[in-house]
Design brief:
alpha/beta; D-Maltodextrin-Binding Protein, domain 2
């Protein structure tokens, strides 16, 4: 049967995109868990949404692995992941998936070198995170940075200790470009790290790097900016050293084939373009096609519809971007197709 509140929505909106707020909205809550990547934006969106509608959005950033697990068990209205599920995984778990935001993963260091002066590439990154490159003045790093005085400090690798879509994107990038990494470590939300210290969440990695001399870690761009950490440049697919910025991150996503990718599950690493940041990434929402709480599902769709319509400035202020408008339109069509039809 069609959701009771959704019948009203469809009657009022041919595209099922109008916002439907029950008269007794105050005190209602939506629950979601998952990726740390979008947490800065989701928390701000939640506060603004509650102020406007009276509906609380309770989002807990426990990592992509937790988001996938809990939406599969139906304990939350939505899960969030930076590691998109395949069309086969979505089908087997009876889920839909859609992207919300674009940002970038950056390398942050604590070696006394000013922001973005240090240049790295996929080979040196694989060497550092595998433990092969052990000191900051290693010849491979000096070759990339002939005009930078590199310290003789030991390199302290900091990585995620929890199941993380950020780890999936980072290790996917290394696996694409380094054969040894692909063979011996691979790409997943959790891997057997050859070296380093584990920290929980992007905030944990950022804090660990900030207080550890010689450290390097990977976090989302916004976490690096908020914690005033030094970020490195990266050599991109065209052989250009680029700095992480909203402009270079958006350049990576600009011409990506979103609509031809099942479940919108696009990986944005190593995209073409001289200005493209090679570690750009999208983040995704997962929802059950046949939810256990239809009213909470409807309110969740209202929240993300509001975010697509009114949340752009909040995202931009935090150095994220919404997905392109044509992608949003396709997502809204997916909502209508999935939730407006009669379910046997």
């Amino acid at each position: 049967m069609m959701f009771p509140l959704m019948r009203i929505g469809i009657a009022l909106c041919a595209l099922f995109l109008c916002t439907i707020f029950p008269a007794d909205a105050a005190g209602k809550a939506i629950s979601g868990v998952g990726a740390t990547f979008p947490y800065p934006v989701y928390s701000k969106w939640a506060a603004a949404y509650q102020a406007e509608t009276g509906i609380e959005v309770n989002y807990q950033s426990i990592g992509s692995g937790g988001g996938i697990k809990q939406i599969k068990t139906g304990t939350v209205a939505f899960g969030a992941t930076d590691a998109p599920l395949t069309s086969e995984a979505l089908e087997s778990s009876n889920l839909i998936q859609f992207p919300t935001l674009i940002s970038g993963i950056v390398l942050v260091t604590n070696i006394g070198i000013p922001n973005t002066e240090l240049i790295l590439d996929s080979s040196t990154l694989a060497g550092i995170f595998s433990g092969r490159i052990k000191r900051w003045n290693d010849p491979e790093l000096e070759r990339l940075n002939p005009h930078v005085l590199l310290p003789n400090d030991h390199i302290i690798v900091v990585h995620r200790a929890d199941g993380s879509g950020t780890t999936f994107i980072f290790t996917r990038y290394l696996s694409e470009l380094d054969l040894d990494w692909r063979e011996y470590v691979g790409s997943n939300m959790m891997v057997s790290w050859p070296t380093g210290i584990g920290a929980k969440g992007s905030d944990g990695v950022a804090n660990m790097v900030a207080r550890t001399r010689g450290a390097i870690g990977y976090v989302e761009y916004s976490y690096a900016k908020q914690n005033k950490l030094s970020m490195t440049q990266l050599i991109n697919r065209e052989g250009k050293a680029v700095m992480p910025s909203p402009k270079t991150i958006q350049a990576a996503a600009q011409n990506a084939p979103w609509l031809s990718t099942p479940g919108f599950g696009l990986i944005l690493t190593n995209q073409p373009g001289s200005e493209s940041w090679p570690l750009a990434a999208a983040t995704f929402i997962l929802m059950r096609k046949k939810p256990r709480n239809s009213e909470e599902t409807l309110e969740s769709l209202n929240f993300f519809s509001w975010a697509y319509t009114k949340g752009e400035k909040i995202a931009e202020d935090l150095d994220y971007a919404l997905v392109p408008q044509n992608v949003i339109e396709s997502v809204e069509a997916l909502w209508k197709e999935t939730f407006s039809k009669e379910n046997p």
